[in-house]
Specification:
The complex is a heterodimer of chains A (200) and B (167). Chain A has one domain: RNA polymerase sigma factor, region 2, helix turn helix motif (Rna Polymerase Sigma Factor, Chain: A, Orthogonal Bundle). Chain A has 10 helices and no strands. In chain A, helix 4 crosses helix 8. By secondary structure, chain A is mainly alpha-helical. Chain B has 167 residues and is mainly alpha-helical. Among the domains of chain B are: 48 residues, no CATH class; 57 residues. Chain B is built from 7 helices and no strands. The relative contact order of chain B is 0.05. The chains are: A mainly alpha (200), B mainly alpha (167). Chains A and B meet through helix 2, helix 3 and helix 9 of A and helix 1, helix 2 and helix 3 of B.
Chain lengths: 200, 167
């Protein structure tokens, strides 16, 4: 069988019991995967949990692994699904606790879990204008950008990982790039809305 | 501000945006997380090694598949033979049910029992004599004589003008 990449070969070796192959695979992908998750969910604790969950799923399903695509596509598809599950759980939890917060005062504006001040404090990495702008992107656009930057996946591969048509993936990446480029323009440009960075 | 659509330039990998992103900090997972994931992977591999025989790529012995196929074929052939040659297989599927068979037996005229000398199973004299006459017409004289002797043993006092006399 012709392998699509060296990582697929490592995964096949691990599937057949070679733990050393898994170590090599882990070393190559742990950084990109961790940053993808960290910058997606923007919460160090949640990112660590998801990171462990992704590798656990990979280990648990290794006997069914077939190298049909680049290994990174396989790994980050698992990561994408874990992140989506996380966002759903987070959304449900926030919806469930909302009635208890009703104390007669005007409700606070809806703030995503990862943007609450106590959570933001955990996310100590966010210091540059670029990363701040990345954090403000819609989740789908942020994901497309991170997948390309962290793993070098093509548009087609990003579409496969995120289960969307190629044109959708392309459009998401295009919008992400436009918005992030604005964040790189010096502060003298009068676009305060896009250049605002969060004080930590 | 009008921004040029330079997605293609960006995808080639040399854009200022990509360079800027790569200059950002590159956080890595904590060492404790590394240890946990690697230990989990090792443990899973050990469990698989304990639970499955080595051999095929999925832990199955390579000879099991053809062996299982051959066993299935043998079993199928044995079942077919058992069905074909079993005693109950002699029954015809179009044979009527038992009650109907009994009725048919009653209605069916009995075949001539030419060689029966059992008094309990003896035919009526006229029937028997007709059978003997039929044997003589067919040239089976010796059988007809033997049958006539049996007739006299069963019906010693029978007198009739049309007895098919012994020759």
């Amino acid at each position: 069988m012709e392998l699509l990449d060296e990582d697929a070969g490592l995964m096949l070796r691990y599937r057949d019991g070679d733990v050393g192959a898994f170590s090599a695979l882990y070393s190559r992908h742990k950084g990109p995967l961790y940053r993808y998750l960290l910058r997606q969910v923007r919460n160090a604790g949640a990112a660590a949990d998801l990171f462990q969950e992704v590798w656990s799923r990979l280990v648990a399903t290794r006997t069914r692994y077939e190298p049909r695509a680049k290994f990174a596509t396989y790994l980050f598809h698992i990561a994408h699904n874990c992140a989506i599950d996380h966002f759903r759980r987070d959304s449900k939890r926030r919806t469930a606790i909302r009635p208890e917060d009703a104390d007669g005062q005007a409700p606070e504006p809806e703030v995503p879990e990862h943007q609450r001040p106590d959570r933001v404090a955990e996310f100590v990495e966010q210091q540059s204008a670029l990363l701040a702008a990345l954090g403000r992107l819609p989740q789908e656009q942020r994901e497309a950008f991170l997948l390309h930057e962290e793993t070098g996946l093509t548009i087609e591969e990003i579409a496969r990982v995120t289960d969307v048509p190629v044109e959708t993936a392309k459009s998401r990446l295009r919008y992400a790039i436009r918005k992030l480029k604005v964040s790189m323009i010096p502060a003298t440009v009068p676009d305060a809305g896009l250049l605002r960075t969060r004080a930590i | 501000m009008e921004l040029p659509d330079d997605l293609d330039d960006y995808l080639r990998g040399a854009s200022a945006l990509s360079r800027q992103y790569r200059r950002e900090s590159a956080p890595m997972p904590p060492h404790a997380l590394d240890r946990s994931v690697l230990e989990s992977a090792r443990e899973s591999a050990r469990e698989s090694a304990r639970g499955k025989p080595r051999g095929g790529s999925h832990g199955k012995a390579p000879y099991l598949a053809p062996l299982a196929f051959a066993a299935s074929v043998l079993l199928s052939v044995a079942m077919v033979l058992a069905i074909v040659f079993a005693p109950q297989a002699a029954k015809r599927v179009d044979e009527p049910p038992r009650v109907i068979r009994a009725a048919i037996r009653v209605e069916r005229p009995s075949a001539p029992r030419l060689y029966s000398s059992d008094p309990l199973r003896a035919r009526a004299p006229s029937v028997w004599l007709a059978d003997i006459a039929a044997l003589r017409r067919a040239g089976r004289e010796r059988e007809a004589d033997a049958e006539l002797r049996r007739f006299h043993r069963v019906y010693p006092n029978y007198v009739s003008d049309d007895l098919p006399m012994q020759r």
